[in-house]
Specification:
By secondary structure, the protein is mainly α. The protein has helices spanning about 1-5, 10-20, 35-45, 50-65, 70-90, 95-105, 110-145, 155-170, 180, 195-210, 210-240, 255-260, 265-270, 285-315, 330-335, 340-375, 390-405, 410-435, 455-465, 470-475, 485-505, 510-525, 530-550, 555; strands at about 185, 190. It is globular, with a radius of gyration of 24 Å. Keywords: Membrane, Transmembrane, Transmembrane helix, Transport.
Length: about 550
């Protein structure tokens, strides 16, 4: 049975099935309309969204102006993964993203686990973005149109309940809270995030219509976002030097690198999404050439935008003022009495979140389509609409998976789950490159440069151990009494040393190993409570695989 659990698909077989259109009776292809510019803008659409309009504030509060190092560190981590994605995308130019790549390298069971984890990145991630969209949208309704929606129709049930429980625990009054004042339905408070639900429905319809229409809409929104951010940068720099606010950049690292690194895991959420490019391989005109360029271009462009924007807002307003701020770009202009500019930025934030949802809502159905073609999901998920040439059924299901929970969910838990699922996928993609056989460089195709990590990787692990020696000795000395977070740290150290030893023996390539280690470290910084939910999610996925996918797999029938 172990052999059948890890049965693999060859690259040649995947490409052959794709070219002949034979996968589960699927005939014909999808529209090949995406080029380098489209892919780059799609990556920017996914990355420049909720992060730059929300999490950048808390990161600035912890790290001060030096938080730019935070974005650079996170970008480097994603950069290692992007290069590995580019290698796979060049050699396996079909839909499916990391799921398909794992099927080639690790086998069916790991591919299923990864495909199931990717739901956390795309679908659950879209829940977070939809909630952020709703907050900015309600702000615009109040400030521009003077329309105030009832609070119980603009807040998730779990969010309102947590606020109520926190107030009770702190001994604070609860009479003014949403959970207390909401109308009751069969004895339960009627609390739903209606705007978030409606935008999910609209985005799902757009993704259903077609990739060309989605592409044009995404490109328009990305262009508008970039114009808005350039406007913020220009006005901000002018204000900083005109009003002599450069003192806000001193000290540059008020809390040292510890303060900068404190928000790494949270800011990571701002970078997820660039891998959504790899799910559109079948709709790319020249995937071997264009997809690697699109991924890397979008990552570089987004990092530059993050760094410039961070320097501008920390120059306009002292970093200490960002405590608890969830709309930092609008906040800095409100702080200097430019409320109209702040409202304009709120409008751009709505556009930003919309483009992110669109990209994610395009990516998820194509992963399910690939899993269905392999027999791991019912055939309906790989059904292509005869007119729009999109995975229609999978797109509708994605709409339900995102739309129903967004009415009730709490965004904090969803953010953690999204980060875990994404980092888990990144680790397997980086590890998968190590399993791929080396091939000769081919003109027009991307090949990951090989850098021998025989000595570099062990040296880096030794340096990290020295820098983390206090935490390590404390965790070891408290074995049996430490919390889950320290246990995760000990597990990471064990795995890091194991990887260092194997890299020394087998001369592993440096870039994918660094990608694995960086992503694993970010994973252990996520709260243990979210890890427990993640394990429950994985258990549910394994049940579905063994009851359906294992028996209906195309490889099993073969």
């Amino acid at each position: 049975m172990s052999n059948s659990l890890f049965r693999k698909k060859s690259i040649e077989k995947i490409i052959s099935d794709h070219q002949q259109g034979l996968a589960d009776g699927h005939i014909g292809g999808m529209k090949k309309v995406l080029n380098v510019r489209d892919l780059t803008l799609m990556g920017v659409a996914a990355v420049i969204g909720a992060g730059i309009f929300s999490t950048i504030g808390s990161a600035a509060f912890n790290g001060g102006p030096g938080v730019i190092f935070l974005f650079i560190i996170t970008a480097i981590t994603c950069g290692f993964t992007a290069l590995c994605y580019a290698e796979f995308a060049s050699r396996v130019p079909v839909s499916g993203s990391a799921y398909t790549y794992s099927y080639v390298t690790f086998g069916e069971l790991i591919a299923w686990i990864l495909g199931w984890a990717l739901i956390l990145e795309y679908s659950i991630g879209n829940i977070v973005v939809a909630i952020s969209w709703s907050a900015y949208f309600n702000n615009i309704l109040e400030n521009v149109f003077h329309i105030s929606l009832p609070a119980h129709l603009t807040t998730g049930y779990e969010t309102a309940k947590h606020a109520y429980e926190a107030a009770l625990a702190a001994g604070q009054p609860t009479g003014d809270l949403i959970y207390t004042n909401a109308p009751k339905l069969l004895g339960f408070p009627l609390i739903v995030n209606l705007p978030a639900f409606l935008i999910v429905c609209i985005i799902t319809m757009l993704a259903y219509i077609g990739i060309r229409e989605s592409k044009n809409t995404a490109n328009f929104m990305v262009g508008l976002k970039i114009v808005v951010l350039l406007f913020i940068a220009a006005v901000g720099i002018w204000i900083i030097f005109t009003d002599d606010l450069t003192g806000n950049w001193t000290p540059f690292l008020p809390n040292g690198m510890a303060g900068v690194l404190k928000g790494v895991s949270a800011v990571f959420f701002a970078y997820i999404g660039f891998d959504a490019i790899s799910t559109t391989a079948e709709e790319c005109a020249n995937p071997q050439r264009d997809m690697p360029r699109g991924m890397i271009n979008s990552l570089i462009l987004c990092t530059v935008i993050y760094v410039i924007t961070t320097l501008v807002i920390t120059g306009m307003v002292n970093y200490k003022d960002f405590e608890g701020v969830t709309d930092p770009l609008a906040f800095v202009f409100d702080k200097i009495n430019m409320q109209k500019v702040g409202t304009f930025i709120s409008i751009s934030a709505v556009i930003a979140a919309t483009s992110v949802m669109l990209v994610f809502q395009i990516g998820q159905p194509r992963i399910w389509m690939s899993m269905s073609r392999d027999g791991l999901l019912p055939k309906s998920f790989s059904k292509i609409h005869h007119r729009f040439q999109t995975p229609s059924f999978a797109t509708i299901v994605t709409g339900f998976v995102v739309g129903i929970p967004v009415l009730f969910a709490d965004d904090k838990l969803m953010t953690d789950l999204t980060s875990i699922g994404t980092l888990f996928a990144f680790v397997l993609v980086c590890g998968g490159v190590l399993v791929l056989p080396r091939v000769a460089s081919t003109p027009g195709k991307f090949n990951l440069p090989y850098i021998n990590g025989k000595f570099i990787i062990p040296v880096l692990v030794i340096l990290f151990t020295i820098l983390s020696w206090n935490r390590l000795t404390e965790a070891v000395g408290n074995i049996g009494t430490e919390g889950y977070q320290e246990i995760l740290f000990l597990v990471f150290m064990f795995v890091a040393w194991l990887i260092a030893i194997v890299s020394f023996i087998r001369n592993y390539s440096l870039i994918p190993v660094l990608g694995m280690l960086c992503c694993m470290y970010l994973m252990i910084e996520i709260p243990a409570k979210s890890w427990l939910v993640f394990f429950v999610w994985m258990a549910l996925g394994l049940m579905i695989y063994f009851f359906y996918g294992y028996r209906n797999s195309r490889l099993a029938r073969a």
